[in-house]
Amino acid sequence: MSSNTKAFEDKMKSAVEHLEQQVASVAVSEARTLTITPWDRTLLRAISKAILASDVGINPIDDGQTIRLNFPAPTEERRKQLAKEVSKMGEEAKVAVRNVRRDAMDKAKAMKKAGELTEDTQKTMEEDVQKLTDKYVKNIDAAVEEKQKEIMSV
Description:
The chain is of the alpha+beta class. It has helices at residues 6-19, 44-53, 76-113, 119-152, and strands at 24-30, 33-38, 61-62, 67-70.
């Protein structure tokens, strides 16, 4: 891949990383209890607020160092709903990757028009960007599929 596509690959990679972003360790302390331990304790309040603002219907128990979440057994309907939400998040990540691809293609065209690239170099750059796009879309699909299987097998 050419160095012209490195910046675009970084943007695509960050879209996937955003999907997988972590700010705390999460552990299962009992069968239906999660313990969230933020790496930065100043995030406790923000994490608790985010959990309360979400529609999961769980009240976080904050002891100043960790957050405990007691979950009831999920119904089949709730698991399907969560799987749909994962799909939606995956689609948003794919849109971000495709936006990066569009920006890269526009940049290649502008560079060709300005005489900075030959037509062959432009085509190579566009092919490299498409390969990167396909790679990251495939990564997103795999992550979504894995998470959906995990949700439905609970």
